[in-house]
Amino acid sequence: MDFHNILIKWYLQHQRDLPWRKTVDPYQIWLSEIMLQQTRVAQGMPYFFSFTQEFPTVKHLAYASEEKVLKLWQGLGYYSRARNLHKTAQYISNDLNGVFPDSYKELLKLKGVGEYTAAAIASFSYNEAVPVVDGNVFRVLARYFDIESDIALPATKKEFAALAQQLMPKDNPAIFNQAIMEFGALQCVPKSPNCTICVFKESCAALQKGKVNMLPVKSKKIKVTNRYFNYLILEDASGNTLVQKRTAKGIWHNLYEFPLLETQSIVDFDEISQTVKNEIFAKYTIISIEDCNESTLIHKLSHQHLHIQFWKIKVKEEVENGVDAQKLKTFPFPIVLYNFIEKQEINC
């Protein structure tokens, strides 16, 4: 079919030089696909190199501590990916003798591996003829064939998967999957693609009908919740402070943070001072409380906007279970806290 021939020819001329494309090792492909979920290639690349250097095989990853894995993942976001990655590595290492499942159906059984990731590993590692359907694929096919189905609906995913399966050359599914994703990433981009240089400019239905920027259709809106975090940074005469692990389910699970006071809105000095002295740190003699922010820091997650204030609290007594500045940097923190520590704003 002309579509796949034109697409693959374009890909062979324009593909990016990416390390996971130079191997059929399912471990490295799995690693890259998990990292690139909701992450740009440029952001994910350094992490891929760090992980493959630190954990060259799935067994190396399995035998590492979760804390070490989270520390290496620090800054990549969506930390459940890292926790699932670690658990799956342990399962493959311990239950499957370090050997990855070699089919789409079996790969789907792995924790943290959905239809897209299973299809990517199955086709890239084992050349199984199963289509990948991600945002890039939705966009390319919706525009080329003028498909107005809502991509937020599960039925639409099946529709696009069936179409991609039809278009895919069964003797080389890997290159077709790579090509259509790359085409969406580089040429058929979400906003204002340069259709004048597109290899499909004569046959793209959306271009002919002036609908390029209207497709694909996605109706689902993300509801954003605002939360208000006040981080309380204790400091004693030795410069030691206090950190704690977030053990509750939700954002940043098993990462570390300073003692947290979550409020219903942005609070002022008087409210923090009262709460700190009378409730949270009543056992300490408070020397001073200082607001470390010139303004509230807003940290945006996919479904939440965190309004963050840092409060430095100097105390007379030695901080119980305190950590010094050097040890502090060894813990895995959410990136917003890590950046705060790195900039030494802790010494505000």
> Under the CATH scheme, which architecture of the largest domain would be assigned?
Orthogonal Bundle
Overall pLDDT: 94
The parts where pLDDT drops under 50 for at least 5 residues are none
Put simply, the count of helices is 15
CATH topology descriptor of the largest domain: Endonuclease III, domain 1
Largest sheet: 5 strands, mixed
Report the sheet-strand fraction: 5-15%
Q: In sequence order, what are the helices and strands, one letter per element?
A: HHHHHHHHHHHHEEEEHEEEHH
In CATH terms, the superfamily of the largest domain is Hypothetical protein, domain 2
Shape: elongated
Radius of gyration: 25 Å
N-to-C CA distance: 64 Å
Helical content stands at 40-55%
**Strand tally:** 7
- Determine and state the CATH class of the largest domain: Mainly Alpha
Structural class of the secondary elements? Answer: alpha+beta
Number of domains: 2
InterPro entries: A/G_AdeGlyc_MutY, DNA_glycosylase, HhH-GPD_domain, HhH_base_excis_C, HhH_motif, MIG/MutY, MutY_C, NUDIX_hydrolase-like_dom_sf
Catalytic activity: Hydrolyzes free adenine bases from 7,8-dihydro-8-oxoguanine:adenine mismatched double-stranded DNA, leaving an apurinic site
Organism: Flavobacterium humidisoli
Keywords: 4Fe-4S, DNA damage, DNA repair, Glycosidase, Hydrolase, Iron, Iron-sulfur, Metal-binding
Question: What can you see in these coordinates?
Answer:
- It catalyses: Hydrolyzes free adenine bases from 7,8-dihydro-8-oxoguanine:adenine mismatched double-stranded DNA, leaving an apurinic site.
- It is an enzyme of class 3 (hydrolase).
- Adenine glycosylase active on G-A mispairs. MutY also corrects error-prone DNA synthesis past GO lesions which are due to the oxidatively damaged form of guanine: 7,8-dihydro-8-oxoguanine (8-oxo-dGTP).
- Keywords: 4Fe-4S, DNA damage, DNA repair, Glycosidase, Hydrolase, Iron, Iron-sulfur, Metal-binding.
- Its cofactor is [4Fe-4S] cluster.
- With 348 residues, the protein is α+β, with helices and mostly antiparallel strands.
- It folds into 2 domains: 2-214, Orthogonal Bundle (Endonuclease III, domain 1), CATH 1.10.340.30; 225-347, Nucleoside Triphosphate Pyrophosphohydrolase.
- The chain is 43% helix and 12% strand.
- It contains 15 helices and 7 strands.
- The protein has helices spanning 2-14, 26-35, 41-54, 58-63, 66-73, 80-95, 104-107, 115-126, 135-145, 154-167, 173-186, 205-209, 269-280, 325-328, 335-342; strands spanning 225-235, 244-245, 256-257, 260-263, 286-291, 297-300, 304-315.
- The strands form 2 sheets. Strands 1, 4, 5, 6 and 7 form a 5-stranded mixed β-sheet that branches. It has a two-stranded antiparallel sheet with strand order 2-3.
- A hairpin with a 3-residue loop joins strand 6 and strand 7 (304-315).
- It is elongated and about 75 Å long.
- The mean pLDDT is 94.
